[in-house]
Design goal:
100 residues; alpha/beta; three-stranded antiparallel beta sheet; two-stranded parallel sheet; 2 helices; 38% strand; globular
Length: 100
């Protein structure tokens, strides 16, 4: 059988690789399987290094398609705290421009 079995609800750890700094929108295939995925990850642990660079991951399980096209992908998105800081900066900039 070409099914991946995730016994015991394992943890998925996402770690940085050497000095590579990915960009928002980058997409990585973490796993592929032929016919099925049985089980789930109990948790996903993203190394704090990514948050310090304003990055986080959205995981997408692609269980639709033909054999061999089934994947787990990680897509880089802005880290939620970074979005708040960017929004605050934009608000302050707009207020400053209105006063001028």
């Amino acid at each position: 059988s070409a099914t991946i079995w995730l016994f015991g609800s394992p943890t998925l750890d996402i770690l940085p690789w050497n000095s590579f700094v990915p960009q928002v929108g980058d997409q990585f295939t973490l796993m592929t399987w032929q016919t099925g995925l049985d089980g789930t990850f109990a948790s996903v642990v993203v190394d704090p290094w990514f948050a310090s660079h304003g990055l986080n991951f959205d995981l997408h399980y692609n269980n639709v398609g033909g054999a061999g096209n089934l994947t787990l992908e990680a897509i880089l998105v802005p880290e939620p705290a970074s979005i708040g800081v960017l929004g605050l900066g934009a608000t302050l900039l707009l207020r400053r421009r209105r006063r001028a």
